[in-house]
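hiii, so i know i said id send this last week but things got crazy w the move. better late than never?? heres the sequnce for the chain we talked about at the cafe, plus the structure i predicted for it. fair warning i was half asleep when i ran it
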Amino acid sequence: MVLGRGDLTRIALIDCLFNKFNSFDFFSKAVGEKIPNVEVLRLTAPSPFNIPGMAKKAFSQGAEAAVIFLNYAEDDRDLVALLHEKLIDVEIKSEKFSLFCLVADEEWKTEDELEHVSQERIATIVNILEKGLEENSEEPLSPDLSDALSFMSAPPQTKSII
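okay and structure toks below
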């Protein structure tokens, strides 16, 4: 899987105003250390409902991929699922992809724990991006990702309900 189409690769970081951790500085530094010739575009959504629109905007501005960093409460799991569904539509139409970097409020109690968990998740996302950007990657996709990509590119199947 090769993402870069030129000398400069743009990756969008989409965060939300209500996030409790400012992910931009750490994300930019981590991406800059692992991926050459990268530009990080930051888009901040006023609410989670605006995230799919922000991803569409990022892709129209030349981003090859979007990383959505979101802090959420346990009660918001359905909202996160809905966001994922809407982002799939954006991904299919733009032929680009987004990755979620989620940190639930229940995973941390102190600001230090929040920072630690957030940085671990961001590091994992950056590693995924790095592998995706390798031009001569011979490592096969994981079965889950391979199945998901096949499913997304397959024509829709219809079933009779009668």
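btw Helices lie at 24-34, 51-60, 77-94, 111-133, 143-153. thought thatd interest u
miss u guys!!
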